[in-house]
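#lab-general

N.A. 3:47 PM
ok so I finally got the sequence cleaned up, no stray characters, all 246 residues accounted for. can someone with queue access submit it? mine expired

B.Y. 3:52 PM
send it over

N.A. 3:53 PM
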Amino acid sequence: MISRDDLIHYLNDYLKIDEFSDYGPQGLQVEGKSEVQTIVTGVSASVQLFEKAVQAGADMIIVHHGILWDRDSHVIKGGFKNRIKLLLENDITLLCYHLPLDKHAEIGNNAVIAKKLGLSNLEEFGDVGIQGQIKETELQSLLKTIQDTIKSDPLVFAYGPEKISKIAICSGSAQKEITIAIENGADVFITGEVSEPTMHIAKEGNIHFIAAGHYATETFGIKALGDHIEKKYNLPVKFIDVPNPV
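B.Y. 4:20 PM
back already:
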């Protein structure tokens, strides 16, 4: 068991949330019971996730995508109401770490993906991404590795060089960052989603573009955060998978 507030203070500091200007409040979003024994993690807040967390006896839920966004309506109704109701009725704390969990150098989405793909000489890419070198390979070999590690069937615009050695990564909905990848001389840009103009930008920029799924590319950070908490505090942490094809 650990104090809710002590854990929040530690995570806020560990993930350096004060360094980010995000799209909604980071860290605490809904306050629950003061002591935490069981934690559930997930990529995105939803009624489905919260119901499963209740079944698992969670005192705290930690997600990458929370329920409070600056651009959303503040009217509490519909699905938003049902999410809040589940949390309040079961006295469950909700924490959210968005951009901080994309960028973190050890457990961030992009850092973990880079490690799984075997990148070296890592550098920051854009605001929260990462780029690095890989032993020279061909696109099909890289795609096989992505399918095995990210567990997705990616959409690919194969307009880059035959031999690949430099890769840029930015998880989630970062398709517009392709222009930075091109400027940085990357052979491949990996993100989660795609937009209509992306194909032409990739073709004209002579780069391979890979959309491996917003959800799929953002399971890594929240899982790694759960592992970190479990080891540091000897608390049970359960990742609940609520797959999303996007």
